[in-house]
Amino acid sequence: MLTPNMHYAELKDSYLFYNISRKISNYTQENPDVHLYRMGIGDVSLPLCSAVIKALHEAVEDQAVQETFHGYMPECGAPFLREAISGYYAGKGVTLSPDEVFVSSGASDELGDILDLFDVTSSALVMEPAYPAYVDANIIAGRKIYHLASGEENGFLPEPDSEIHADIIYICSPGNPTGAVFDRRKLQNWVDYALANDSVILFDAAYEAFIEDDDIPHSIFELPGAEKCSIEICSLSKTAGFTGTRLGYTVIPRALVRNGMSFNEMWVRNRTTKTNGVSYIIQKGGAAVFTPEGQKQIHDNIRVYKNNAKVLMDALDKLGIWYCGGKNSPYIWMRCPGTMSSWEFFDHLLFNVQVIGTPGAGFGSCGEGYFRFSTFGSPEDTKEAASRLCALL
Ligand code: PLP
Question: Which of 12, 70, 197, 256 lies 20 to 30 A from 373 at CA?
């Protein structure tokens, strides 16, 4: 008899967004005319910038003409986009050859697929609270998972624990949900730990474009030694509003080798087996992000989200509430008032001031007692939500 992958039975039900939408729909059924201030979503609200739209239109036209028509694209990405991305890294002082950059259809897909590069007996370390996909992808694969707790005492940025030997280490900086960012020294500690333990870091840089402080690395490859122990997974979703358009990239340096096996070459083999690449049109749109005009326009949009963050941070400062994130990140992670649990605080905000956020408990047990605000909403709603928070608390 066929045995399905029984590890699926070990997955915890994902109550978080289901519960949020159930509570919201109950509330709106009872209060159909009340406007809700949605500070919970991780999706962007601004449209694609004009440089990207122009490139997308042109690429559509290319597909209508025999001479410029493109069929299957190279599985690892179009050379024009791999070059544009390696040029972007050069601007951060990181030298990559285009064949160390792999174009993907988004970070989520890659975070799951990349585990094909590791033996099932390898263990994974996840810093909690964490983006839920890290844990779930490893449960599905049947791996041992170490949960490394973090909290206010270390600014939600845990240090390596010499008692734990993990093969795969997830680092997300700027972090989701906490918005916390690893500075050079703290990140170097993890690179040194990975080198000493023969581990591989999966560095999730989905929010790197929000970094504004000089001592915060945008890429793990800014740190010496990282090229021998890291894979970087990135996305244009939040950087450039591609959540619905779908495009990302993954960097696997040629120097990343274990047991005589090159991770870069294994990933080429993996991609050429499991994908037929990302569409020409989308890759053309993505390449426009890395032009000077595209960079200016996406940063104009990011500035709108950063202003939202400032409005919310000012409100929390005024209220004397502890929080992290917001500055180099689109997320603000605040301590719930008094002894309120994160779900109690969710209800408190929804019922009293119609503001919606995300309960921290949904991101792992050390998220209990905390609450996440996203800054991707509209400026008008964010201002009103901030003033309602001040009035309530
Ligand atoms: N990594 C983190 C930390 C995220 O928060 C998200 C999306 O919210 C992703 C990856 C997935 O991004 P993508 O839209 O590229 O799949």
Answer: 12
Q: Which amino acid is at 16?
A: L
Q: Is 108 in the pocket of ligand 1 (CB under 6 A)?
A: yes
To the nearest 10°, report the CA torsion of 213, 172, 372, 212.
10
Helix (H, G, I), strand (E, B) or coil at 250: strand
Distance CA 290, CA 279 (A): 18
Domain segments of the chain: what residues? 9-48+294-392, 50-290
Q: What is the mean pLDDT of residues 214-223?
A: 97
Distance 319 CA to ligand 1 centre (A): 31
Ligand 1, from 172, 176, 178: best to mutate by most atoms within 8 Å of Cβ? Answer: 176
| CATH architecture of structural domain 9-48+294-392 | Alpha-Beta Complex (3.90)
Q: Does domain 50-290 have CATH number 3.30.420.10?
A: no
Q: Does 132 score more than 90 pLDDT?
A: no
> What was the pLDDT predicted at 14?
73
Is residue 258 over pLDDT 90? yes
* Beta strands, E only, 236-380: 248-251, 257-258, 261-262, 323-325, 331-335, 355-356, 358-359, 370-374
Mean pLDDT of 53-68: 98
- Name the residue at shortest CA distance from atom 8 of ligand 1: 42
* Whether 187 contacts 205, CB under 8 Å: no
C-alpha 3 to ligand 1 mean position (Å): 31
How many whole angstroms from its chain centre is CA 287? 20
248 Cβ below 6 A of ligand 1: yes
Q: Tell me what the pLDDT averaged over the chain comes to.
A: 96
Count of CB atoms within 10 A of residue 55's CB?
22
The pLDDT, as a whole number, for residue 289 is: 98
Question: Two tokens at 355?
Answer: 């503001």
Cis previous bond, 177, omega within 30? yes
Place of tokens 């045995």: 3
Distance (Å, whole) CA 287 – CA 298? 13
Using CA atoms, how far apart are residues 179 and 279, in angstroms rounded to an integer?
A: 32
Model-level pTM?
0.97
